[in-house]
Amino acid sequence: MSTPIPPHHPQLAVSSAIFRDGKVLLLRRARSPAKGFYSLPGGRVEFGESLHAALHREVDEETGLKIDIVGISGWREVLPGPTGGGHYLIMSFAARWHSGEPVLNEENDDFRWLAPDALGDLKVTGGLAEVLGVARRLVEA
User: pLDDT digits over 60-100, tens only?
Assistant: First the structure.
């Protein structure tokens, strides 16, 4: 399977810090650009799709979970690196688990429910700790 060529313009994406019993769901990416890194479920927003609709769709596609969105917990810009890659603006949201158990698709090869302050030396995507801090405060409010 070949790696898709990234578009030559910024892409809007969403991600969700999903909390259940004080723990957050992290997925390990099975594909580039973040292969091997733990991150939040999410992905690109489709043309004409609201951020919330995109978030529900992406979470369902990547995990099979149903969630209740609490609020926005931050954003992150990912720029192309020296070897290429895409340009993304990722809007992150805090959410509460509603139902289901994680069932991974081909984009991820592992999942973990972890306390947000227990990431330790886990290999995570940039900015994750900050987004989790805000998301945790929103969910606990």
Answer: 999 999 999 999 999 999 888 777 778 899 999 999 999 99
- Alpha-carbon distance of 31 to 44, in angstroms, equals 15
What's the CA gap between 2 and 82, in Å, rounded? 20
| Beta carbons within 10 angstroms of residue 88's beta carbon | 18
DSSP label of 120: T
Asked, for residue 127, whether it belongs to a domain, the answer is yes
The CATH number of the domain holding residue 50 is 3.90.79.10
Contact 98, 69 (CB under 8 A): no
Owning domain of residue 75 = 11-140
Q: What is the pLDDT of residue 32?
A: 81
Name the token pair of 47.
């043309």
The pLDDT-based confidence of 3 (bands split at 50, 70, 90) is: low
| DSSP-assigned letter for residue 34 | S
